[in-house]
Amino acid sequence: MIKILVGVLLLWILLVIGFVIAVAVTSGNRVTAFVDEQGNVLPDSIAEKTFVQINGRENGMFIRGKDTGNPVLLFISGGPGVPQYWLNEVYREQYPNRLEEYFTVCWWDYMGEGLSYDKDIRPEEITVEKLAEDAAAVAEYLQERFGVEKVYLMAHSGGTPLGMYLAQNDPDHFYCYFAMGQDVETGNGRYEDGYYFMREQFEQSGNEKGLRMLNRLAGEENGTFVIKKPEEIRGAWESVLLEAGCATTREMRSDALEIFFPQMFSGCYTFTEKLHYWQGKALLSKSSYAEYGIGVDALEPAQIPVYFISGYYDYTTPVTQARELYEALEAPDKAFYEFADSAHSPLWEENDAVLEVMRKHVR
Question: How far is 94 from 88, CA to CA, in rounded Å?
Fold first, then answer.
């Protein structure tokens, strides 16, 4: 028995060492350039990782675009605290994203996340107001650098409360706001809408495993929706979403195998930056910003046009709730676009269709 335990321990040690070596070997500062058929960098393109002083703190960002004469777009990542630029590098074949062919895109890592992680930042410092001030400063940096009057704004998932806040409060820096997977504060409404949609999906496909997972967490009592495991549902719900194809994409079934490991093996980060990525996610999960929500009640009007981009199968931030917010929102212009073959990430899942929509609203 002792020999078996020692053998298992040694195996785990070897696996950990192998993992660390693989992470180190794949680390770097590689940012894919735009090149012609001969491999020459396109003269008007940009592809860089840079660090800029924003309101007294260093903020990291990737800036890429095929032609710097294109409109400039500020992308606010989801999570909160989960930067998404690396998806374009790692999933180039499976989920090709041509956003940078039509926009000069600033993939900004906001305060505390990813490239902008700092161990001295306290969670309570990261508020929606502070992030909005930083976003305005980043927009000004982009305006000056690329000589544009304003920039376009796009946010995803956990970044959308900030995106909507900016749409409601900052018409000076942004032309319009593209809200992908808009997060809406509805209490348990997220679980209720998700329960009925996924139950139907599991029943139609005969997925008994999915039904068991779902019904263990929630269900009906006397025709009323109830949460059976309130102490577990927040953490366990992601597993049900993955099983139903209602999470990050319709195809993804494991956050560990398809998010964590690919990110750790991506070549656009240094070894330290990879560690900071997950430290930043933990920091943002405890932040004041994580408690901020946008709801239908007492909804302030937007000062710029808002265009919703949602997947039919998105029940991470339910498409049903995004549509309710859309219907309640006052804005100079608005539209709701639902993508039939997408879950939580239409920009990657149905890239051409999303780009067609976005380009309709570019001046």
Answer: 10
* Res 363: pLDDT: 82
Give, for 104, the enclosing helix (H) or strand (E).
Answer: strand 104-108
The single-letter code of the amino acid at 310 is: S
351 membership: H or E segment, kind and range: helix 351-360
Nearest to 105 by CA among 85, 87, 79: 85
Q: What percent of the chain has pLDDT over 90?
A: 83
The pLDDT of residue 127 is above 90: yes
- Residue tagged 């592809």 (tokens): 47
- For CATH 3.40.50.1820, list the domain ranges present in the chain: 46-180+268-360
Report how far residue 241's alpha carbon sits from residue 191's, in angstroms, rounded to the nearest whole number. Answer: 10
Per-residue DSSP letter, 284: H
Distance, CA of 80 to CA of 290 (rounded, Å): 7
Residues 6+ apart with CB under 8 A from 33: 41, 42, 45, 47
Go through 248-267 and write b for each residue having 16 or more CB atoms within 10 A of its CB, e for each that does not.
bbbebeeeeebbebebbbbb
Which value, in Å, is the radius of gyration of the alpha carbons in the chain? 21
pLDDT in tens, 183-201: 999 888 999 999 999 999 9
How high is the pLDDT of residue 14? 77
CATH architecture of the region 46-180+268-360: 3-Layer(aba) Sandwich (3.40)
Helix 319-328 vs helix 189-205: angle between axes, to the nearest 10 degrees?
140
Q: What is the mean pLDDT of residues 237-260?
A: 94
In whole angstroms, what is the distance from residue 313 CA to residue 311 CA? Answer: 5
What is the reported pTM? 0.93
